[in-house]
Design a protein that fits this description.
By secondary structure, this protein is of the alpha+beta class. The chain has two helices and six strands; from the N terminus they run αββββββα. β4 and β5 form a beta hairpin.
């Protein structure tokens, strides 16, 4: 019994570590956003934290595409602060 509980706990921890990544396009401005979490509001709008600006964004109309971690990292890597030695 203890082994089954431990195996379930490991699976839950593994799945919790596997995040989702999204590319969101505003169809009117063609602006592209990247995020790891999206809240779907009752009005149909989406609310999320933009990975590039660290700002909360709400869009009434949007195109949402789930992307892999590689595309997310490549699209947001230029945002990493430069370390001076």
């Amino acid at each position: 019994m203890m082994k089954k509980c431990f195996a379930c706990l490991l699976c839950i921890m593994f799945l919790a570590g596997c995040g989702s990544y999204y590319k969101i396009t505003d169809p009117s401005s063609k602006k592209i956003y990247y995020t790891e979490d999206i809240d779907q509001m009752d009005s149909g709008a989406v609310k999320f934290k933009d990975a590039k600006t660290d700002s909360q964004v709400t869009l009434q109309s949007s195109e949402v595409k789930e992307i892999d971690s590689k595309e997310f990292e490549e699209s947001t890597k230029s945002l990493q602060p430069v370390k001076n030695n």
